[in-house]
Design goal:
The protein has 123 residues and is α+β, with helices and mostly antiparallel strands. It has a single domain, classed as Alpha-Beta Plaits. Helices cover 28% and strands 33% of the residues. It contains four helices and six strands; from the N terminus they run αβαββααβββ. The strands form two sheets. A four-stranded antiparallel sheet has the order 2-3-1-4. A two-stranded antiparallel sheet has the order 5-6. The protein starts with a helix and ends with a strand.
Length: 123
């Protein structure tokens, strides 16, 4: 039964912010820097699970939009976070928010005590 398999999975609710570039001419270096600084701040506050631009050959990185996966209490909070993105505030980017359930996946983490080092593999 499906419920038997999914009951032991992570079942972590997250929010996917799908960004669409609507005014590419507004994506100045200054605005990109503001967006990146804001994104790093959100990451530091624990709000960003993962984020990045879509990559299309022969287009500048981010011209095709991007995706951010947010940690939020609910969709309303996720939308509020998304509305603070400098790209959105400037009108360069629009977004759609979708609730997403993280069910499966893996991260490999190796801790080496002797060298006090670690490595992580996201494959």
């Amino acid at each position: 039964m499906v419920s038997d398999l999914t009951s032991t999975m992570l079942n972590l609710p997250l929010y996917v912010m799908l960004r669409t570039t609507v005014q590419p001419a507004l994506l100045s270096e200054e605005l990109v820097l503001a967006h990146l600084r804001w994104m790093i701040e959100q990451e530091g506050q624990g709000r960003v699970f993962a984020s990045g631009p879509f990559v299309v050959p022969d287009l500048p990185r981010g011209a095709a939009g991007g995706m951010t996966i947010l940690r939020a209490a609910d969709e309303q909070q996720a939308v509020q976070i998304g509305q603070e993105d400098p790209f959105v505030k400037a009108g360069a980017v629009a977004f759609q928010m979708h609730k997403w359930m993280l069910m499966e996946g893996a991260i490999q983490l190796t801790l080496r005590y002797s060298s006090q080092s670690f490595s992580m593999e996201l494959t």
